[in-house]
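ugh ok so i messed up the first submission bc i forgot one of the chains. this is the corrected input, ALL of the components this time, i swear. 179 residues overall. if the numbers dont match what u have on ur side tell me asap before i send this to the collaborators (the ones from the other lab, u know who)
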Amino acid sequence: MSKETAPSRYHPVHVALHWLMFLLVIMMLGVGKFVMPGVPVADPQKPSMLQIHAYIGIFITILLVARLITVFTTKRPAPADAGNSFLNFVARAVHVLFYVLLLGMALSGLGMFQQANLPAIFSGAAPYPADFSVYPPRIGHGLTSTLLLLLILLHVGAALYHQFIRKDNLLSRMWFGKR
Ligand code: HEM
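and heres the new structure output, hopefully the right one now
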Protein backbone atom coordinates (compact mmCIF):
# COMPACT_ATOMS: atom_id res chain seq x y z
CA MET A 1 0.00 0.00 0.00
CA SER A 2 1.45 3.39 -0.99
CA LYS A 3 1.49 6.15 1.61
CA GLU A 4 -1.19 8.12 -0.29
CA THR A 5 -3.73 5.26 -0.41
CA ALA A 6 -6.64 5.65 1.99
CA PRO A 7 -6.82 2.76 4.48
CA SER A 8 -9.71 0.30 4.34
CA ARG A 9 -10.63 0.90 8.00
CA TYR A 10 -10.47 3.58 10.66
CA HIS A 11 -7.51 3.61 13.04
CA PRO A 12 -8.02 1.15 15.97
CA VAL A 13 -7.98 4.04 18.48
CA HIS A 14 -10.75 5.74 16.47
CA VAL A 15 -12.72 2.47 16.38
CA ALA A 16 -12.37 1.96 20.15
CA LEU A 17 -13.41 5.56 20.86
CA HIS A 18 -16.39 5.29 18.47
CA TRP A 19 -17.90 2.22 20.15
CA LEU A 20 -17.13 3.32 23.71
CA MET A 21 -18.72 6.73 23.06
CA PHE A 22 -21.68 5.09 21.31
CA LEU A 23 -22.43 2.92 24.36
CA LEU A 24 -21.93 5.73 26.89
CA VAL A 25 -23.98 8.31 24.93
CA ILE A 26 -26.88 5.86 24.37
CA MET A 27 -26.85 5.05 28.09
CA MET A 28 -26.73 8.74 29.08
CA LEU A 29 -29.58 9.63 26.70
CA GLY A 30 -31.71 6.70 27.90
CA VAL A 31 -31.16 7.39 31.59
CA GLY A 32 -31.31 11.20 31.20
CA LYS A 33 -34.55 11.19 29.21
CA PHE A 34 -36.44 8.23 30.65
CA VAL A 35 -35.08 7.34 34.12
CA MET A 36 -33.91 10.54 35.83
CA PRO A 37 -37.15 12.52 35.25
CA GLY A 38 -39.11 9.74 37.01
CA VAL A 39 -37.08 10.01 40.23
CA PRO A 40 -38.69 12.59 42.58
CA VAL A 41 -36.57 15.58 43.64
CA ALA A 42 -36.98 14.48 47.30
CA ASP A 43 -35.55 11.00 46.61
CA PRO A 44 -32.21 10.68 48.49
CA GLN A 45 -30.76 8.82 45.44
CA LYS A 46 -31.38 11.80 43.13
CA PRO A 47 -28.13 13.75 43.83
CA SER A 48 -25.93 10.66 43.43
CA MET A 49 -27.68 9.75 40.16
CA LEU A 50 -26.93 13.23 38.88
CA GLN A 51 -23.35 12.99 40.14
CA ILE A 52 -22.77 9.77 38.15
CA HIS A 53 -24.43 11.42 35.13
CA ALA A 54 -22.21 14.50 35.36
CA TYR A 55 -18.98 12.52 35.79
CA ILE A 56 -19.77 10.18 32.90
CA GLY A 57 -20.63 13.31 30.86
CA ILE A 58 -17.22 14.80 31.71
CA PHE A 59 -15.59 11.49 30.75
CA ILE A 60 -17.42 11.57 27.38
CA THR A 61 -16.10 15.11 26.89
CA ILE A 62 -12.52 13.87 27.40
CA LEU A 63 -13.20 11.03 24.93
CA LEU A 64 -14.58 13.61 22.47
CA VAL A 65 -11.35 15.64 22.63
CA ALA A 66 -9.32 12.42 22.15
CA ARG A 67 -11.55 11.54 19.20
CA LEU A 68 -11.08 14.93 17.54
CA ILE A 69 -7.30 14.57 17.92
CA THR A 70 -7.53 11.08 16.38
CA VAL A 71 -9.64 12.37 13.47
CA PHE A 72 -7.02 14.95 12.55
CA THR A 73 -3.90 12.82 13.17
CA THR A 74 -4.77 9.44 11.63
CA LYS A 75 -5.65 8.41 8.08
CA ARG A 76 -9.30 7.70 7.41
CA PRO A 77 -10.96 5.56 4.72
CA ALA A 78 -12.31 7.39 1.66
CA PRO A 79 -15.83 8.84 2.21
CA ALA A 80 -18.49 6.13 1.83
CA ASP A 81 -20.68 6.18 -1.28
CA ALA A 82 -24.38 6.00 -0.45
CA GLY A 83 -25.35 5.85 -4.13
CA ASN A 84 -26.31 9.50 -4.72
CA SER A 85 -24.73 12.87 -4.12
CA PHE A 86 -27.50 14.18 -1.85
CA LEU A 87 -27.16 11.20 0.54
CA ASN A 88 -23.38 11.60 0.45
CA PHE A 89 -23.80 15.25 1.47
CA VAL A 90 -26.22 14.28 4.28
CA ALA A 91 -23.73 11.68 5.55
CA ARG A 92 -20.95 14.27 5.79
CA ALA A 93 -23.27 16.78 7.48
CA VAL A 94 -24.40 14.15 10.02
CA HIS A 95 -20.80 13.37 10.96
CA VAL A 96 -19.93 17.03 11.52
CA LEU A 97 -23.20 17.57 13.43
CA PHE A 98 -22.33 14.72 15.81
CA TYR A 99 -19.25 16.59 16.97
CA VAL A 100 -21.15 19.89 17.22
CA LEU A 101 -24.01 18.35 19.27
CA LEU A 102 -21.69 16.40 21.58
CA LEU A 103 -19.73 19.59 22.18
CA GLY A 104 -23.06 21.32 22.89
CA MET A 105 -23.98 18.62 25.45
CA ALA A 106 -20.57 18.99 27.12
CA LEU A 107 -20.64 22.79 27.23
CA SER A 108 -24.25 23.04 28.46
CA GLY A 109 -23.54 20.34 31.08
CA LEU A 110 -20.46 22.19 32.28
CA GLY A 111 -22.47 25.43 32.23
CA MET A 112 -24.96 23.86 34.66
CA PHE A 113 -22.10 22.47 36.71
CA GLN A 114 -20.89 26.01 37.27
CA GLN A 115 -24.21 27.93 37.43
CA ALA A 116 -26.07 25.48 39.67
CA ASN A 117 -22.97 24.65 41.73
CA LEU A 118 -23.45 20.92 41.14
CA PRO A 119 -20.75 19.81 43.64
CA ALA A 120 -22.82 21.42 46.45
CA ILE A 121 -25.90 19.50 45.24
CA PHE A 122 -23.94 16.21 45.07
CA SER A 123 -22.69 16.61 48.65
CA GLY A 124 -26.13 17.60 49.99
CA ALA A 125 -24.86 21.09 50.97
CA ALA A 126 -27.45 22.58 48.55
CA PRO A 127 -30.96 21.20 47.84
CA TYR A 128 -31.77 19.54 44.52
CA PRO A 129 -33.40 22.30 42.39
CA ALA A 130 -37.15 21.82 41.84
CA ASP A 131 -36.55 22.70 38.18
CA PHE A 132 -33.12 22.95 36.59
CA SER A 133 -34.62 25.08 33.77
CA VAL A 134 -34.02 28.19 35.88
CA TYR A 135 -30.44 27.74 34.63
CA PRO A 136 -30.37 28.65 30.88
CA PRO A 137 -27.88 25.89 29.86
CA ARG A 138 -30.51 23.32 30.95
CA ILE A 139 -32.75 24.39 28.04
CA GLY A 140 -29.87 23.88 25.57
CA HIS A 141 -28.96 20.55 27.21
CA GLY A 142 -32.52 19.23 26.78
CA LEU A 143 -32.94 20.43 23.17
CA THR A 144 -29.50 19.23 22.10
CA SER A 145 -30.11 15.81 23.67
CA THR A 146 -33.31 15.42 21.57
CA LEU A 147 -31.42 16.39 18.38
CA LEU A 148 -28.63 13.97 19.33
CA LEU A 149 -31.14 11.14 19.78
CA LEU A 150 -32.66 11.84 16.35
CA LEU A 151 -29.21 12.01 14.75
CA ILE A 152 -28.24 8.66 16.29
CA LEU A 153 -31.42 7.09 14.85
CA LEU A 154 -30.52 8.50 11.41
CA HIS A 155 -26.92 7.29 11.75
CA VAL A 156 -27.95 3.76 12.79
CA GLY A 157 -30.53 3.70 9.97
CA ALA A 158 -27.84 4.70 7.46
CA ALA A 159 -25.44 2.03 8.76
CA LEU A 160 -28.16 -0.62 8.39
CA TYR A 161 -29.01 0.69 4.88
CA HIS A 162 -25.37 0.23 3.84
CA GLN A 163 -25.07 -3.16 5.51
CA PHE A 164 -28.31 -4.78 4.35
CA ILE A 165 -29.55 -2.85 1.29
CA ARG A 166 -26.35 -1.71 -0.43
CA LYS A 167 -24.54 -4.72 1.06
CA ASP A 168 -21.20 -2.87 0.96
CA ASN A 169 -20.14 -4.08 4.45
CA LEU A 170 -19.52 -0.48 5.52
CA LEU A 171 -19.60 -1.49 9.20
CA SER A 172 -16.31 -3.36 8.81
CA ARG A 173 -14.61 0.03 8.34
CA MET A 174 -15.52 0.84 11.95
CA TRP A 175 -14.07 -2.39 13.35
CA PHE A 176 -10.63 -3.76 14.16
CA GLY A 177 -8.50 -5.55 11.57
CA LYS A 178 -5.82 -5.14 8.95
CA ARG A 179 -5.88 -1.66 7.40
C1 HEM B 1 -22.55 13.61 26.11
C2 HEM B 1 -22.77 13.96 27.38
C3 HEM B 1 -24.13 14.06 27.99
C4 HEM B 1 -25.33 13.51 27.62
C5 HEM B 1 -25.61 12.59 26.43
C6 HEM B 1 -26.33 13.98 28.56
C7 HEM B 1 -27.68 13.67 28.51
C8 HEM B 1 -28.65 14.25 29.31
C9 HEM B 1 -30.07 14.10 29.11
C10 HEM B 1 -30.72 13.26 28.00
C11 HEM B 1 -30.72 14.82 30.06
C12 HEM B 1 -32.23 15.02 30.18
C13 HEM B 1 -32.60 16.03 29.10
C14 HEM B 1 -34.10 16.20 28.91
O1 HEM B 1 -34.78 16.56 29.88
O2 HEM B 1 -34.57 16.02 27.80
C15 HEM B 1 -29.69 15.45 30.91
C16 HEM B 1 -29.93 16.25 32.01
C17 HEM B 1 -28.93 16.81 32.80
N1 HEM B 1 -27.57 16.69 32.60
FE1 HEM B 1 -26.64 15.75 31.07
N2 HEM B 1 -25.72 14.79 29.50
C18 HEM B 1 -24.38 14.87 29.18
C19 HEM B 1 -23.40 15.58 29.86
C20 HEM B 1 -23.61 16.25 31.06
C21 HEM B 1 -22.57 16.91 31.83
C22 HEM B 1 -21.07 16.97 31.41
C23 HEM B 1 -23.18 17.45 32.93
C24 HEM B 1 -22.57 18.24 34.07
C25 HEM B 1 -21.28 18.28 34.33
C26 HEM B 1 -24.60 17.15 32.84
C27 HEM B 1 -25.56 17.56 33.75
C28 HEM B 1 -26.93 17.42 33.60
C29 HEM B 1 -27.92 18.02 34.47
C30 HEM B 1 -27.64 18.90 35.69
C31 HEM B 1 -29.17 17.64 33.97
C32 HEM B 1 -30.54 18.03 34.55
C33 HEM B 1 -31.03 17.00 35.53
C34 HEM B 1 -32.43 17.33 36.00
O3 HEM B 1 -33.16 18.06 35.30
O4 HEM B 1 -32.79 16.84 37.07
N3 HEM B 1 -24.82 16.41 31.69
N4 HEM B 1 -28.45 15.09 30.40
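quick check: Residues 25, 28-29, 32-33, 36, 50, 53-54, 57-58, 60-61, 102, 105-106, 109-110, 112-113, 132, 138, 141-142, 145 surround protoporphyrin IX containing FE (CB under 6 Å). that seems consistent at least. Residues 70 and 81 are 23 Å apart (CA to CA).
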